């Protein structure tokens, strides 16, 4: 019989154990996939308090709760989310099926599905998979699953779980994970697969050396930019998140600009796509000269930033202020345009904001505009 886990470990929406808990601006925690579906459906109230949320609510990872859930699961030695775990094959058998050349596609799909569930909360099993040489087998499954969305999605889900551990992140890249994932971004069998592929890159990019490797890989950044341009819903959000992660490495900012990211990001922000992460990416790209030059070429770019500063969420306002300040520091013309659009007055008001970063960025922009003449 499956053990009963504390209610605080369960998502208030799905009532299932959370694998990726995130905090809403309301202060309540939900599983990322559940609350994202709630938001994607157009809801802008907290499911618990019913109080209004920002137009583009920021989801903050609840790392402390995630560790508690993982430790609880490890201590209890239970296979989560599977009440019939005592009837299923042991992990060693599932790994053997995955690595064996004689296994049928159906048996491999079953093993991928089971292992994807088990590895969500079991760090020891993730280590066991890595030490058994199964990483290459998972990547091979990904390569042969192009025509099967369920197969590809399970392989990607398992790959994502394995990438949660820092020791595995470098190992996966050494095994060729980037090439496999980029292949999914370019020609994935479904939008969900492409979205998970972006999330895998985000996870791999936590390790600094991987950011450089991802950026240098042919078509990696271009594929993310293409998804920003042509993707839908979750694909776009995950592509923006991955791009933000890899662009914390300076050389990748220039690469993203060269791939045409700036006008696409400006369109997403200015067109009301509700993608706060797009403003965050712009705040990274503005740190390179090529990014600032390209932003200066986008018609109405200052107006896009002013719109975010006036009506965006906290993170969006903070990043838009930073981006505009960087542009104003390098261009008298941008300063004049910002003055014409009333930025000085807006910033004076924001200098009283409760958010310390917003206050600081608004103050810096006021100083820049005050010294521009």
Automatic annotation (TrEMBL):
InterPro entries: ARM-like, ARM-type_fold, ARM_PUB, Armadillo, RING-Ubox_PUB, Ubox_domain, Znf_RING/FYVE/PHD. Pfam families: ARM_PUB (PF25598), U-box (PF04564). Residues 93-104 have a biased composition (Low complexity). The keyword Transferase applies. Keywords: Repeat, Transferase, Ubl conjugation pathway. GO terms for molecular function: ubiquitin protein ligase activity. Residues 4-79 form the U-box domain. PROSITE patterns: ARM_REPEAT, U_BOX. It catalyses: S-ubiquitinyl-[E2 ubiquitin-conjugating enzyme]-L-cysteine + [acceptor protein]-L-lysine = [E2 ubiquitin-conjugating enzyme]-L-cysteine + N(6)-ubiquitinyl-[acceptor protein]-L-lysine. Transmembrane segments: none annotated. ARM repeats lie at residues 133-177. Pathway: Protein modification; protein ubiquitination. The keyword Ligase does not apply. GO terms for biological process: protein ubiquitination. Residues 81-108 are annotated as: Disordered. Its EC number is 2.3.2.27. PANTHER family: U BOX DOMAIN-CONTAINING, U-BOX DOMAIN-CONTAINING PROTEIN 8. This is RING-type E3 ubiquitin transferase.
């Amino acid at each position: 019989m499956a053990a009963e886990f504390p209610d605080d470990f369960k998502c208030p929406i799905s009532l299932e154990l959370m694998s990726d808990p995130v905090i809403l601006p309301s202060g309540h925690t939900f599983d990322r996939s559940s609350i994202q579906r709630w938001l994607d459906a157009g809801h802008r109230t907290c499911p618990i308090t019913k109080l209004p949320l920002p137009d583009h609510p920021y989801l903050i990872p609840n790392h402390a709760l995630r560790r508690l859930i993982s430790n609880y699961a490890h201590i209890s030695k239970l296979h989560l989310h599977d009440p019939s775990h005592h009837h299923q094959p042991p992990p060693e058998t599932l790994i053997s099926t995955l690595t064996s050349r004689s296994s049928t596609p159906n048996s491999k799909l079953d093993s991928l599905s089971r292992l994807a569930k088990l590895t969500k909360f079991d760090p020891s099993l993730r280590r066991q998979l890595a030490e058994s040489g199964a990483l290459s087998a998972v990547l091979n499954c990904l390569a042969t699953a192009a025509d099967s969305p369920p197969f590809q999605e399970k392989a990607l889900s398992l790959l994502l779980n394995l990438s949660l551990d820092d020791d595995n992140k470098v190992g996966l890249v050494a095994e060729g994970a980037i090439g496999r994932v980029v292949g999914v971004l370019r020609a994935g069998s479904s939008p969900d697969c492409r979205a998970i592929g972006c999330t895998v890159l985000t996870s791999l990019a936590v390790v600094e050396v991987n950011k450089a490797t991802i950026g240098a890989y042919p078509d990696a950044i271009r594929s993310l930019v293409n998804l920003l341009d042509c993707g839908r819903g979750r694909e776009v959000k995950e592509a923006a998140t991955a791009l933000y992660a890899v662009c914390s490495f300076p050389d990748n900012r220039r690469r993203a600009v060269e791939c045409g990211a700036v006008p696409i990001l400006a369109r997403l922000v200015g067109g009301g796509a509700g993608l706060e992460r797009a403003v965050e990416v712009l705040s990274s790209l503005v740190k390179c000269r090529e990014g600032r030059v390209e932003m200066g070429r986008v018609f109405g770019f200052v107006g896009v930033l002013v719109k975010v500063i006036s009506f965006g969420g906290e993170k969006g306002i903070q990043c838009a202020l930073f981006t505009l300040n960087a542009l104003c520091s390098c261009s008298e013309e941008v300063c004049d345009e910002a003055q014409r659009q009333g930025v000085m007055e807006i910033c004076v008001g924001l200098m009283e904001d409760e958010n310390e970063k917003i206050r600081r960025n608004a103050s810096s922009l006021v100083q820049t505009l005050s010294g521009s003449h």
